[in-house]
Amino acid sequence: MIAELIELRDKIDEVDRAILSLITKRLALVTEVGEVKSQHGIPIYDPKREAEMLTKRRNEAELVGVAPNLIEDILRRLMRESYNSENDKGFKKVYNGQGSIVIIGGNGQMGRLFTRLFSLSGYQVKTLGSKTMHQAAEMVADAAVVIVTVPINKTAEIISGLPPLPKDCILTDFTSIKQQPLQAMLQQHSGPVVGLHPMFGPDVPNLAKQIIVYCDGRESEKYQWLIEQMRIWGANLYPIAASEHDKCMSFIQALRHFTSFSYGVNLLKENANLEQLIALSSPIYRLELMMVGRLFAQDAQLYADIIMSSADNIELIKRYYHCFGQMVRLIEKGDKAGFIDNFNQVTEWFGDYAPRFIKESQALLKLANDNRA
């Protein structure tokens, strides 16, 4: 190898080691930040601080001839790691009253995630599962919060079978539909009730920037501390009426999952060569294929329950099927003008969101391309 190239690579290795040393120092400082935040009950995610810091570093990068997007990519990756470090330091306990946190379904993945978060915040956590439900009356006797996180098709049954809860105990659920379980909780418990929907899977490393939807049931002033506790964990809490939530979930979950499911079934029936598809795919198709594959790496029962959880979901999917058929007939006729007309109508409907989504998707596409073997 050319001696000059070897020398330059040695210098690059030296710089890389210096970068690694600086990253180590930064993460050590982040650990100290996490301890301070834990003591004072400061959320691990501060959107204002993050935005201001990124703007300053982008401006500084531009002044020295470094691409602003490069420094932002590096810092965002470091911040994700920083949130993980802060997450390990524990959190301030918001609730000063007596009582434990009882998680029904606590042995499931989502149950284990929130068991850990409540434990890191200093709460006593008790879990109930299918084999221990006979102990429910004893377990909930001193509960400050009872959380139901079980499969959709069992949620209403579990709620209706709960023993009497303490008067001021908060009853909540983590189900991805809200109207039915919220109504069941209101009927079962006369105290504070709120419906929660964590908009993420149990494999998230922390709750920084994650969305938790909450739907008011009763006595909101008595469950506000629970909302605040989740904010301290880093989550964004989004209030919405149960009916509006379920309408949105029909699009976000039921229809989206159904289209991925149908596409996967069609790939199977067409005997598509996945290895070749991956090898020949552009970053955008690779990303789309990854999302379809991700669905089939998970629990089939869960997605069947989500898609079939309401008659509204089925009707929405049937309307999509009708629309799909119309578009098929359009291309069968070779109606390019009709295709373009429909395309432009949707473009106008998206409005400013279309260019915004192009910009936001760039980082995902770069990551998909970076991960290509």
From TrEMBL:
KW Amino-acid biosynthesis (keyword) present: yes
Keyword line: Amino-acid biosynthesis, Aromatic amino acid biosynthesis, Cytoplasm, Isomerase, Multifunctional enzyme, NAD, Oxidoreductase, Tyrosine biosynthesis
Family, as annotated: In the C-terminal section; belongs to the prephenate/arogenate dehydrogenase family.
Compartments in which it is found: Cytoplasm
Keyword Transport among record annotations: no
GO cellular component, one term: cytoplasm
GO annotation, biological process: chorismate metabolic process; tyrosine biosynthetic process
Main location: cytoplasm
GO molecular function: chorismate mutase activity; NAD+ binding; prephenate dehydrogenase (NAD+) activity; prephenate dehydrogenase (NADP+) activity
Protein species of origin: Orbus hercynius
InterPro entries the UniProt entry points to: 6-PGluconate_DH-like_C_sf, Chor_mut/prephenate_DH_T, Chorismate_II_sf, CM_dom_sf, CM_II_prokaryot, CM_T, NAD(P)-bd_dom_sf, PDH_C
Pfam families: CM_2 (PF01817), PDH_C (PF20463), PDH_N (PF02153)
UniProt name for this protein: T-protein
Pathway: Metabolic intermediate biosynthesis; prephenate biosynthesis; prephenate from chorismate: step 1/1; Amino-acid biosynthesis; L-tyrosine biosynthesis; (4-hydroxyphenyl)pyruvate from prephenate (NAD(+) route): step 1/1
Domain Chorismate mutase span(s) in chain numbering: 1-90
Chemical reaction(s) catalysed: prephenate + NAD(+) = 3-(4-hydroxyphenyl)pyruvate + CO2 + NADH; chorismate = prephenate
Domain Prephenate/arogenate dehydrogenase: 99-361
Origin superkingdom: Bacteria
